[in-house]
C-alpha cells in the first residue's frame, strides 16, 4: 500500500521523464529501495494510476464496496510480532513461520503480507572477521593514510600490487543453498566428497592495469608428480625473486608499484622484509612490520579477498577439472582472461570501501562491484 507522498512522487517522476512509466518506476525503486511490487508499481498499473489522477485530480483510490482487505488489516499485527521475535533473538533474526504460528495464520499469508504490504525481504546472516577496538583504530588510520597518498597522487592506488594466496580444492565446494532440487518427494540425492580433497595453493598479484600469472607452491616428486607445499618464508622469497621481480622488470613497473601483502607469518619474516625493502624501498611497501602496515583482520579491504578468489572459484570449476593439472590449467586460463578494465574497476571498489570505512569508524564494509 503506497502512501500519499509515494504516490505523488510516482506521478512527478512520470511527468519528469517524458511520461515513461518504465523510467519512472526504475527511479522510484532506486529512491525508495523497493525491489518489485504490484498495482502502481508496474508499468501498466502506473499508467492506469496516472490516468485516474488526470480524471479525478486525486491520489487516493476510489472507495470500494465490500469487506475491507484482510491483508492490510493484519499487516500491523504481523509487523509487531516480527519485531517481538527479533528482540528475543540474540542475533536480531526473526521468522515468518514463527510469527504465523503465534498469530494462528498460514505461513504463506504471512510471507505474502511481509513482501507485498510491509515490503520486507529475507536476508541471511553473513560471517565476518571479529574486529577488536585496536583493529578498528588501525583500519581507520590506514584509510586516512591511503587517502592522503591518493590526494598527492591519484594514480597511486592503481599502481599497488595486491598480492595473496588461496587454496583451490580439486573437488571444489558445493553450496547447498544454490543447488535446490524441486520434486514431489524427497529425492534423497547426495554429493560425494573426499575426506581430504587434493588441492593447490595459488599466489596471484595484480594492479589496476595488469595481473601476474598465478604461481603454485609445489614440488616435483618422481613418483607422485607435483606435491602441494605449505607457504613458508623461503618458498615465498623464491616466488618474489624468481617470478614477481622478473615480471615487474619486464613490464617496466619495478619503480612504479607499491607492494602490498597481508600479515601472514611467511610474508613478514626477516629475510622477506629485507628483500622487499631492497627491491621497493620502505616507502613503497604496505605490510605488517613495515613503515605502512596493512591493517589486521581486513579481508574485506583486500581486492584479492573481496573479489579475485571468489571470482576465480566461480569460474574454474565450471569445466569440471578431474586432476590437479587440469585445475591449475583452469586457474591460469581464467586469470589470463581477466580484462584490465575489470582490474581497474576492482581497485576503484577498494577506494569505495575506504570511503565507507571512515563514517563507520573502521568497521566492516561491504563491496558492490560493477
- Beta percentage is 5-15%
The global form is: elongated
Helix count from the secondary structure assignment: 12
Radius of gyration computed on alpha carbons: 27 Å
- How would a crystallographer describe the biggest sheet? 5 strands, mixed
Distance between the termini: 32 Å
Strand order of the largest sheet: 3-2-1-6-7
Binned, the helix content reads: 40-55%
**How many strands in all?**
7
Mean of residue pLDDT values? 85
Q: Structural class given helices, strands, pairing?
A: alpha/beta
GO molecular function: nucleic acid binding
Organism: Trichonephila clavipes (Golden silk orbweaver)
Protein name: DUF4817 domain-containing protein
Q: What labels would you give this structure?
A:
single chain, 46% helix, nucleic acid binding, 5-stranded mixed beta sheet, 12 helices, RNaseH_sf, alpha/beta, DUF4817 domain-containing protein
Amino acid at each position: 500500500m503506497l502512501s500519499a507522498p509515494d504516490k505523488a512522487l510516482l506521478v512527478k517522476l512520470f511527468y519528469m521523464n517524458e511520461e515513461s512509466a518504465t523510467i519512472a518506476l526504475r527511479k522510484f525503486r532506486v529512491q525508495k529501495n523497493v525491489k518489485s511490487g504490484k498495482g502502481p508499481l508496474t508499468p501498466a498499473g502506473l499508467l492506469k494510476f496516472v490516468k485516474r489522477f488526470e480524471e479525478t485530480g486525486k491520489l487516493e483510490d476510489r472507495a470500494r464496496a465490500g469487506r475491507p482487505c484482510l491483508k492490510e488489516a493484519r499487516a500491523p499485527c504481523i509487523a509487531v510480532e516480527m519485531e517481538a521475535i527479533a528482540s528475543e533473538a540474540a542475533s536480531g533474526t526473526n521468522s515468518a513461520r514463527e510469527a504465523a504460528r503465534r498469530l494462528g495464520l498460514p505461513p504463506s499469508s504471512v510471507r505474502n503480507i511481509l513482501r507485498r504490504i510491509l515490503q520486507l525481504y529475507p536476508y541471511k546472516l553473513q560471517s565476518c572477521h571479529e574486529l577488536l577496538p585496536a583493529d578498528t583504530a588501525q583500519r581507520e588510520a590506514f584509510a586516512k593514510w591511503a587517502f592522503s597518498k591518493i590526494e598527492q597522487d591519484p594514480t597511486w592506488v592503481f599502481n599497488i600490487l595486491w598480492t595473496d594466496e588461496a587454496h583451490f580444492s580439486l573437488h571444489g565446494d558445493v553450496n547447498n543453498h544454490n543447488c535446490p532440487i524441486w520434486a514431489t518427494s524427497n529425492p534423497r540425492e547426495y554429493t560425494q566428497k573426499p575426506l581430504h580433497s587434493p588441492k593447490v595453493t595459488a599466489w596471484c598479484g595484480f594492479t589496476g592495469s595488469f595481473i601476474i600469472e598465478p604461481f603454485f607452491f609445489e614440488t616435483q616428486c618422481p613418483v607422485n608428480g607435483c606435491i602441494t607445499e605449505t607457504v613458508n618464508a623461503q618458498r615465498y622469497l623464491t616466488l618474489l625473486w624468481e617470478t614477481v621481480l622478473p615480471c615487474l622488470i619486464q613490464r617496466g613497473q619495478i619503480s612504479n608499484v607499491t607492494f602490498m601483502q597481508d600479515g601472514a607469518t611467511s610474508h613478514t619474516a626477516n629475510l622477506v622484509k629485507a628483500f622487499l625493502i631492497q627491491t621497493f624501498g620502505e616507502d613503497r611497501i604496505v605490510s605488517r612490520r613495515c613503515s605502512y602496515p596493512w591493517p589486521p583482520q581486513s579481508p574485506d579491504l583486500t581486492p584479492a579477498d573481496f573479489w579475485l578468489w571468489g571470482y576465480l572459484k566461480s569460474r574454474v570449476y565450471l569445466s569440471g577439472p578431474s586432476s590437479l593439472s587440469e585445475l591449475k590449467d583452469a586457474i591460469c586460463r581464467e586469470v589470463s582472461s581477466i580484462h584490465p578494465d575489470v582490474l581497474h574497476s576492482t581497485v576503484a571498489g577498494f577506494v569505495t570501501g575506504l570511503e565507507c570505512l571512515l563514517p563507520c569508524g573502521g568497521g566492516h564494509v561491504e563491496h558492490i562491484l560493477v
